[in-house]
Automatic annotation (TrEMBL), chain A:
Domain of life (superkingdom): Bacteria
Membrane-spanning residues: none
Protein name: DUF839 domain-containing protein
Cross-referenced Pfam families: PhoX
Gene3D superfamilies linked to this entry: TolB, C-terminal domain
TrEMBL record, chain B:
GO cellular component: cytoplasm
PANTHER family the UniProt entry points to: PTHR48051, RAS SUPPRESSOR PROTEIN 1 (PTHR48051:SF1)
Highest rank taxon of the organism: Bacteria
Key words, A-Z: Leucine-rich repeat, Repeat
SMART domains: LRR_BAC, LRR_TYP
Annotated InterPro entries: Leu-rich_rpt, Leu-rich_rpt_typical-subtyp, LRR_dom_sf, LRR_domain-containing
Protein name per UniProt: Leucine-rich repeat domain-containing protein
Lineage summary: Bacteria, Pseudomonadati, Bacteroidota, Cytophagia, Cytophagales
Gene3D superfamilies registered for this protein in UniProt: Ribonuclease Inhibitor
Organism: Adhaeribacter rhizoryzae
């Protein structure tokens, strides 16, 4: 998908007369050394503390804000049905290239799967996003869609959703297996494309059936790259016969010239018959290299292709020379990276499971993890294996996996899903629109630097990396409320009942850096069952719900 | 919050439409009326919530919710037509599942199921069942009672044997038995007459019954990654066969009848011990893809194969 943005990025550079040195474009040397690039850019932040998953989403709130856009089982379609679980890939398609008004498609990795489309715009007076409509794509003419994982955006403004399963069945008897394909959707009409003009939608049969992870479409409007998670474990290229029509073309799989070679060859994969197309992963396995669960593949700002192998945790890159590839290298590999956050330095294991990749306008690579601590990492463009430049942008809510990051064309806004967070998460976090957000199911959010999101450009500012937990919860007589302060700060810790009445003040005044425990006992005469514990620090608050068990 | 919530009960909409119908003297937008009729079935995600609305629960999705058992209380949802219980830790299915007589589609993939209660096989409306990625050790005889089952996913289990009652599964079109421990298939599989797609990849098959190739609707047969040393001569009877996957076996020779598969489009013979293919290969008029890598085929034989199949992509 990022070739789309890359085009804009290159255009912007040319217009500005910028030097085409990646580092110069991305950030000044001084800032690069400090790990902080240009201050109005989305990739400009100081890492969050590597804490592993907590009960909420933590981003660098000193510089960035987020806003909830959609939540599964709560966001409602016009027909009254609820958005399903498994929010995954997001695709922002601006109206006429706008970064302020357009469509956001959201994949659902579920069985059956699905794709939602939000019509949304930026309310510039309020400085937050407004969802004007919620729609769902109708897959019934093609039996169904399943496990919609990642996907891509075409240069002509359509969205492609990738079905990550090869479950067998041809229930409509059309000779094509029902699932395991790329599917192109017009986000304006919400309809699946019909290429042969027979009035019935088609999947992108010629790209082959496999456990599709994602798709990256080139600005040449003909070349696409895709990778298979499982099956053949292959990296594929498809070159369409006609520009802007991806329904027919030649398919290739990457074969590394030897196990350790830096060169490789694109081997053609037959894809003319239904038998070929239904069995692409079988043919690709025979013809190509097994990369061990490749996931996202994306266009890099340096003209190279970048892809991740989930099984090993590596991010690879190579140069595509047409019939062959060169300069194959593992660019980011598993090790402990030193993360410098506000308040200290800590090592964090990169682990495995790197899944989604997205480049921003400065050439930072955002890597979303399904495994390890399910982090959102950012790799600076001047990273080398010898001199790592790895940052931590987000720690995620318990049980969830960060998925499907895309940026608005101006790179001010990032859209991301937090798939299937644990229903036990109870922490309430205020978003940039002032709404209380609990990450207890799949959600899709938008984030940006504070000046671009939140009231008067003053989004949440407090050091919400302060942590608030309560145990036991539910409790019988009393609950221990734990506060973990990242720095010394004035704080107020209060308990309210659900009528909004304050029932206790547990702390008021300076709390030193570190952990503090307070006991809350509502007394035997209290009638309330649910309480809200609120921690106010530096003008912002986080809260958690606790429940008194009935005897 | 900017999320649009339109949680209007369907019944309320219907009442509103009824009022409108009266007020407008019967002139009403037919499109809207149709839209209401096609209101989709609500999917319930929480069992407790579903139990409070038993009469309205047709679809239940408890994917990835840490269930260790498909419990009797779930089986009180007797209107259920669709259940997705994949990615739990379900080891047992309560016998009460037999109460769910309207079930049409179930997905128990990625659980810990070792066997199925006899009552499961009384679910006469069942059309699709997915038990892939479980711990099943047999293809139970009870499956023979599921006369409407069209699709059965059993890949990634520990199945050692397929019961001969498979012969009674007259609706079965798709059967996936890949990644199991099968050493043989019963002759009776040849009576499961609706089979279009049979996958038995990644097992320990040493031979397959000749009856398999009497399946006149069979379009796809996947037998790759087994221990096959030979194929029955009846092979040529599978006239509908379009895809035949035989890669990664121990095959040395192929029956001459192979060339009778006039609808064959894709043939995978890679990684066997084949040195010669049958004569008259040109009879395979529709063959477009032939995978032969990893076989001891001489240059002369390669030359012959290429000449006989000028329109076929061949990987040697």
């Amino acid at each position: 998908m990022n070739k789309f943005y890359e085009g804009l990025f290159v255009t912007a550079m040319v217009t500005a007369g910028a030097i085409c040195s990646q580092q110069a474009v991305a950030q000044t040397k001084k800032n690069a050394e400090a790990g902080v690039p240009a201050k109005n850019k989305i990739g400009s932040f100081i890492s969050v503390q590597p804490t592993g998953q907590t009960s909420t989403t933590v981003i660098p709130f000193e510089t960035h804000s987020f806003q909830l856009l959609a939540k599964s089982r709560l966001t409602t379609y016009p027909d009254g049905s609820l958005m399903p679980i498994g929010n995954d890939f997001t695709a922002f398609v601006g109206k006429n290239g706008s970064s302020k008004e357009g469509y956001l498609s959201i994949n659902h990795e579920n069985t059956p799967g699905g794709v939602s489309i939000l019509d949304l715009h930026l309310d510039e007076a309020q400085n937050n996003w407004v969802v004007d409509a919620v729609r769902k794509v109708d897959f019934s003419p093609l039996v169904q869609t399943t496990r919609n994982c990642s996907g891509g955006i075409t240069p002509w403004g359509t969205v492609i959703t990738s079905e990550e399963t090869t479950t067998r069945a041809d229930l409509n008897g059309d000779g094509y297996e029902d699932v395991g394909w790329q599917v192109e959707i017009d986000p304006v009409s919400g309809k699946i494309m019909d290429y042969d003009g027979d009035g019935k939608p088609d999947k992108l049969w010629a790209m082959g059936r496999m456990s599709h992870e994602n798709i990256a479409i080139s600005q040449d409007r003909r070349t696409i790259y895709q990778a298979e998670d499982g099956g053949s474990n292959g990296v594929y290229k498809f070159v369409a016969d006609e520009e802007g029509n991806l329904s027919e073309g030649k398919l290739y799989v990457l074969k590394r010239d030897s196990e350790t070679a830096t060169t490789g060859t694109w081997v053609q994969v037959p894809n003319t018959t239904k038998a070929d197309r239904n069995n692409t992963y079988v043919i690709g396995r025979s013809l190509g290299t097994n990369w061990r669960n490749p996931e996202d593949i994306e266009f890099g700002p340096d003209g190279k292709m970048y892809f991740t192998t989930k099984g090993t945790g590596d991010i690879w890159r190579f140069k595509d020379n047409g019939a062959t590839v060169s300069e194959i290298e593992a660019w980011v590999t598993r090790q402990e990276y030193e993360i410098t956050y506000n308040g200290g330095t800590q090592k964090e294991d990169w682990n495995t499971g790197i899944d989604n990749l997205t480049f921003d306008g400065e050439g930072n690579l955002w890597a979303l993890q399904d495994g390890g601590n399910d982090n959102v990492w950012v790799i600076r463009p001047d990273h080398t294996p010898e001199n790592p430049k790895v940052e931590l942008f987000m720690t995620t809510p318990a049980g969830s996996e960060p998925t499907g990051l895309t940026f608005s064309p101006d790179f001010k806004y990032g859209f991301i899903s937090l798939q299937n967070a644990s229903s036990a998460n109870a922490t309430v976090t205020l978003d940039a629109a002032g709404n209380e957000v609990v990450f207890n199911t799949a959600t899709t959010i938008v984030f940006a630097r504070n000046q671009f999101l939140g009231k008067n450009g003053k989004g949440p500012k407090s050091q919400v990396s302060a942590n608030l937990t309560a145990y036991p919860n539910p409790f019988v007589n009393n609950s221990q409320v734990k506060v973990n302060m990242p720095t010394d700060a004035d704080a107020v810790l209060e308990v309210y009942n659900m009528k909004g009445l304050k029932v206790a003040t547990l702390a008021q005044g300076l709390l030193k850096k570190g952990e503090h425990t307070f006991s809350f006992n509502p007394g035997t005469t209290a009638n309330d069952i649910i309480y809200l514990v609120r921690l106010k620090v530096a003008g912002q608050e986080i809260s958690t719900r606790i429940i008194r068990a009935e005897n | 919050m900017q999320i649009i919530i339109r949680k209007i009960p369907v019944s309320l909409i219907q009442k509103l439409v009824a009022c409108l119908f009266i007020l407008t003297g019967g002139i009403i937008n037919l499109v809207n009326a149709q839209a209401i009729e096609s209101t989709p079935t609500k999917t319930f995600y929480q069992v407790q919530e579903a139990l409070a609305h038993k009469e309205e629960v047709y679809h239940l999705n408890i994917r990835q919710q840490q269930y260790y058992s498909f419990t009797p209380d779930i089986c009180q949802l007797t209107k259920l037509e669709f259940v997705n219980a994949m990615k739990n830790k379900i080891a047992d299915i309560a016998p009460e599942i037999g109460k769910l007589q309207y079930l049409r589609e179930i997905n128990f993939s990625e659980n810990e199921i070792r066997d199925l209660p006899p009552s499961f096989f009384t679910l006469q409306q069942l059309e699709q069942a997915d038990f892939s990625h479980n711990q099943l050790t047999e293809f139970a005889r009870g499956f023979g009672q599921l006369s409407r089952l069209r699709v059965l996913q059993l890949h990634y289990n520990k199945i050692r044997a397929v019961a001969p009652q498979i012969a009674q599964m007259h609706a079965l079109e798709t059967l996936n038995l890949s990644y199991n421990h099968l050493e043989m298939l019963p002759t009776e599989i040849g009576h499961s007459a609706a089979l279009k797609d049979l996958a038995v990849s990644q097992n320990q098959l040493r031979q397959v019954p000749g009856s398999l190739f009497k399946l006149s609707h069979l379009k796809t047969l996947a037998l790759d990654f087994n221990q096959l040393t030979a194929l029955p001569r009846q092979l040529g009877q599978a006239k509908s066969l379009q895809t035949l996957l035989l890669g990664n076996n121990q095959l040395k020779v192929l029956p001459a009848e192979l060339t009778k598969l006039e609808n064959l489009e894709l043939l995978d013979l890679s990684h066997n011990q084949i040195s010669n293919l049958p004569i008259k290969l040109k009879k395979l008029k529709r063959l477009r893809t032939l995978l032969l890598a990893g076989n001891p085929i001489s240059a002369t034989e390669k030359d012959r194969i290429q000449k006989e199949l000028p329109h076929t992509f061949i990987q040697f």
